[in-house]
Amino acid sequence: MPLIKPLSNIKDKETQELVTFFNETLGFCPNSVLTMQKKPHLAQAFVNLNKAVMDNAGSISSEFKRIIAYISSNTAGCRYCQAHTIRAAERYGGEKERLEQAWDFENSRLFSEAEKVALRFTIAASSVPVSTSQELEELLQYHWDETDILEIMSVIALFGYLNRWNDVMGTSLEEDAKDSAESLLQNQWDIGKHAT
Q1: Hey, what CATH topology would domain 60-186 get?
Q2: Tens digits of per-residue pLDDT, 45-93?
Q3: What is the 3-state secondary structure (H, E, C) of the chain?
Q4: Among 13, 50, 93, 138, which residue has the least CB neighbours within 10 Å?
């Protein structure tokens, strides 16, 4: 049961316009945003931050940003965000086999060396305490330019917020996200406290 129940719909017109972003990304407005909507300026700021982070300025695809978000959420243990990010990666063109292997990217031929370095960095940066190293940072700089590194770190930081928010709030998982997680993550995922 969620700590705070989400609103059933968004009444604030400015936020209504902003959440069209999530309709594209997920196919629905997340319960997390419907909960934030109880404080409309928070919901608006969050949606705008999410849009800025997910805007593609470098060479990182929308699909790979969502895989970074999935690995960050997997590291943090937030089942709600794992379901959302794998669903969004699929909606942005992620191939089924690649998404099924995301949790084991190190052993997958479907991830390039540059992507593996980015995902190793994601795990280190998403861990508590943070466990990045100079060697890992140098590898990241070898494979990715500054814009790409800013984008990688922005996704990790955004999901640091979301992982805490949704795990502590016990946000109820929407059926479409649950279906995506059960299909793509199979035995590597369970709904945990996010059951409706």
Answers
A1: AhpD-like (1.20.1290)
A2: 999 999 999 999 889 999 999 999 999 999 999 999 999 999 999 999 9
A3: CCCCCCCCCCCCHHHHHHCHHHHHHCCCCCHHHHHHCCCHHHHHHHHHHHHHHHCCCCCCCHHHHHHHHHHHHHHHCCHHHHHHHHHHHHHCCCCHHHHHCHHHHHHCCCCCHHHHHHHHHHHHHHCCCCCCCHHHHHHHHHHCCHHHHHHHHHHHHHHHHHHHHHHHHCCCCCHHHHHHHHHHCHHHCCCHHHCC
A4: 13
